[in-house]
């Protein structure tokens, strides 16, 4: 059931729809935040609290003090996200007039480098981008996590592998994140002669 008026689960979207959303991102900050969430399965608050010292050449480290589960998680960075890191780093340098230091926030808020952008601002930007891009209703900031889990499982990744990205301690909880498409349901019915 898609999310309606704050109830239900966030809608999952395809990689193509995700690309459409990213093209509609209102600023480089939101585009990069959404890319981090898309490719790491991170929650919005974990993402917005990232410091530059947490971004390595092959991994992003979400430290335990910023994660919901209070455990450190280190998802790998693929080539596409690595390219986004470099693009955004150039934007960050241009905007702030210097190289980022390890403790600098990747997504500083409007009151300076020590305060992150807010979840509310990210949600508003996402709603506006979804409307601009004509994406389905029910999309929320949690759609990035659900879409990552669903896409990985549909491409053959094990739940254990997906949990390395999302940080789920329980595979039972992770199973609830994986969406079943109508095509999957129809294929299952056809398999039993239905």
How would you characterize this protein structure?
The chain contains nine helices and two strands, in the order H-H-H-H-E-E-H-H-H-H-H. With 194 residues, the chain is mostly helical. The radius of gyration is 17 Å and the shape is globular. Strands 1-2 form a two-stranded antiparallel ribbon. A hairpin with a 2-residue loop joins strand 1 and strand 2. Helix 1 crosses helix 5, helix 2 crosses helix 6 and helix 6 packs antiparallel against helix 7.
Question: Could you give the topology of this structure?
Answer:
Blueprint: H1 15-23, H2 28-40, H3 44-48, H4 79-96, E1 108-109, E2 112-116, H5 119-133, H6 143-154, H7 159-166, H8 171-177, H9 182-191
Antiparallel strand pairs: 1-2
Largest sheet composition: 2 strands, antiparallel
Q: Could you tell me how far the N terminus lies from the C terminus, measured between alpha carbons in angstroms? A: 23 Å
Portion of residues in beta strands equals under 5%
Q: What coarse outline follows from CA principal-axis ratios?
A: globular
Radius of gyration: 17 Å
List the helices and strands in order: HHHHEEHHHHH
Q: Give unreliable regions as ranges.
A: 1-5
Total number of β-strand segments? 2
Share in helix: 40-55%
User: With helices defined by DSSP (H or I, 4 residues minimum), what is the helix count?
Assistant: 9
Mean pLDDT: 84
Strand order of the largest sheet: 1-2
Determine the structural class based on helices, strands and strand pairing.
Answer: mainly alpha
In short:
With 194 residues, the chain is mostly helical. The protein contains 9 helices and 2 strands, in the order H-H-H-H-E-E-H-H-H-H-H.
């Amino acid at each position: 059931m898609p999310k309606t008026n704050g109830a239900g689960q966030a809608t999952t979207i395809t990689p193509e729809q995700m690309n459409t959303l990213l093209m509609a991102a209102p600023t480089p900050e939101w585009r990069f935040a959404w890319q981090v969430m898309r490719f790491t399965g991170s929650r919005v608050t974990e993402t917005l609290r990232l410091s530059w010292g947490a971004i390595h050449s092959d991994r992003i480290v979400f430290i335990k003090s910023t994660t919901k589960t209070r455990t450190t998680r280190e998802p790998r960075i693929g080539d596409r996200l690595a390219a986004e890191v470099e693009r955004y780093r150039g934007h960050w340098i241009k905007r702030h007039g210097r190289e980022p230091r390890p403790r600098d926030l990747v997504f500083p808020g409007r009151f300076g480098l020590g305060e992150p952008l807010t979840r509310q601002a990210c949600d508003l930007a996402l709603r506006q981008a979804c409307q601009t891009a004509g994406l389905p209703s029910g999309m929320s900031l949690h759609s990035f996590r659900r879409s990552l889990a669903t896409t990985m499982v549909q491409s053959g990744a094990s739940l254990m592998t997906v949990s390395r990205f999302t940080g789920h301690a329980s595979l039972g909880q992770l199973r609830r994140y994986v969406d079943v498409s109508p095509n999957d349901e129809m294929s299952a019915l056809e398999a039993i002669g239905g």
